[in-house]
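Slack export, channel: ligand-projects

TW: morning all. Re-posting the request from yesterday since it got buried. We need the structure predicted with the small molecule present, not the apo form. The ligand is coenzyme A; the SMILES is in the block with the sequence. No rush, but it would help planning for next week.
GE: picking it up
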Amino acid sequence: MEIKLKKLWESEFERALEVRVVLAVAEKPVSRMSLTKTELETLHALRAPSRQRSWLLGRNALKKLLSSFGMGEETSLLSFPHPHFSLTHVGDRAIAVGSRDHRLAGIGIDLEMDRLPPMKSARFFLSREEQKWLSKVKNGSQPMELLRLWTIKEAAYKANPCNQGTRLSQYIVMESPGRASGTILFPQSSGLLARYHSLKVRKGFLSLALAMENRGNKAR
Ligand SMILES: CC(C)(COP(=O)(O)OP(=O)(O)OC[C@H]1O[C@@H](n2cnc3c(N)ncnc32)[C@H](O)[C@@H]1OP(=O)(O)O)[C@@H](O)C(=O)NCCC(=O)NCCS
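GE: finished. pasting the full token output, ligand included:
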């Protein structure tokens, strides 16, 4: 992938979310030779070759990201959800994101390309209000809008530091779901919310969500 495109995505996310983020993109798996002992153990615990491949792709992106932060290349030190790092992989591409911003309680990234969720899946991950909004979107645009909302919710889920046991339908888009940027309410009343921005990429979307303190909530 072109460096220019990666820089463009970084600056679009920064402009929309007012937080500096760094992306690292991998288009091939990291060589097994460059894995640490702990990484090799994790790899061997993954049985399916397709899962091993996506994991290796992800480690390539994470290693690039960690070394750009001067943090070495040991990816086993990271566990997800993480306040400053997140990862997504689709097909032959993995994208890792990192930010040192001290205001972050969590960060989540999600990429979807070349596949659309079935329309009937909407009721499993959209709230009633979001489904109502989607039903008013022009018919031909509904599948892509559904995909965009899917990536936004997956990014918000990954950004939630307490996401265990939560469902995507519990992550509520607060403004009109048609907007490229906005806020998402988390399932728990944790005092956090997610700010998100979603970019149109070739045949899909790349969404980033940042979990931050809900200032509005605190003031009340
Ligand atoms: C875990 C989950 C977010 C992964 O998303 P995905 O689109 O399948 O896959 P992606 O490639 O985008 O992301 C995978 C990466 O997310 C990260 N990840 C895994 N679990 C995570 C979690 N609980 N929180 C944050 N990040 C997580 C990992 O880095 C993983 O890559 P790795 O295993 O190689 O390290 C997803 O499977 C999930 O559980 N979604 C929400 C639950 C839900 O409501 N599902 C039903 C929808 S109807």
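GE: first-pass observations. Residues 54-55, 58, 80-81, 87-89, 110, 124-125, 154, 157-158, 163, 167-168 surround coenzyme A (CB under 6 Å). The first strand starts at residue 22 and ends at 26.
TW: perfect, thank you
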